[in-house]
Amino acid sequence: xxxxxxxxxxxxxxxxxxxxxxxxxxxxxxxxxxxxxxxxxxxxxxxxxxxxxxxxxxxxxxxxxxxxxxxxxxxxxxxxxxxxxxxxxxxxxxxxxxxxxxxxxxxxxxxxxxxxxxxxxxxxxxxxxxxxxxxxxxxxxxxxxxxxxxxxxxxxxxxxxxxxxxxxxxxxxxxxxxxxxxxxxxxxxxxxxxxxxxxxxxxxxxxxxxxxxxxxxxxxxxxxxxxxxxxxxxxxxxxxxxxxxxxxxxxxxxxxxxxxxxxxxxxxxxxxx
Length: 273
Prior knowledge:
The structure is a single chain. By secondary structure, this protein is α+β, with helices and mostly antiparallel strands. It is 45% helix and 14% strand. Helix 6 (161-177) runs parallel beside helix 9 (217-259) and helix 7 (185-204) runs antiparallel to helix 9. Mean pLDDT is 83; it is low at 130-137.
């Protein structure tokens, strides 16, 4: 698995010991580069080392970045690597970008946090990750994706409680106030689709979820499926009971007709289930 940014010593020190540096970077939407936890010695975490990993886009050259302590680096290979430039102790050092995370500052403006396979400054100890294992890690097999299994997966993310509580409020409001009108069933689907979209936005703003999703498309799709399951599981009884009330009598009459005839439901256009 890739590095867990929430317990990475560099990121933890940045948000505590060097909180002013962190707030300045976040407020000004700078890019924060976080070396993998196994790639550096935590005793090297001083302000000089921290600032060497805070990047601001150069106003003069595309793809080049400046640090608060006067160093320069640039992106290469389609933004998959950072190369140390003028001011760094090892000019030309290349650091691979393992994952990219999007965080939001106090004004809800986005800034990037990159996980690097090694530090831009100090001794270089590159962390080699198995890309195949990283892409497939923590994927719930399709055959196991029941409501309970997806719920277990969803609640395992640190910090997700607030997002789920807001989704619960939306589900309760739907169950308490929404009325399904006969002939307008498609409107129910549209409303639930919008509720799922809003719920996904809430969940993807959780940093641990965002970190997991940044690994590969399969992780994104699994989270989306889990959120949809969570929302639809919450409104299922409401929808089923109201549709049963609206069409239960008609369904019972049809069942009696079919029982005394040689017809099957598919013979009259009802899909096989």
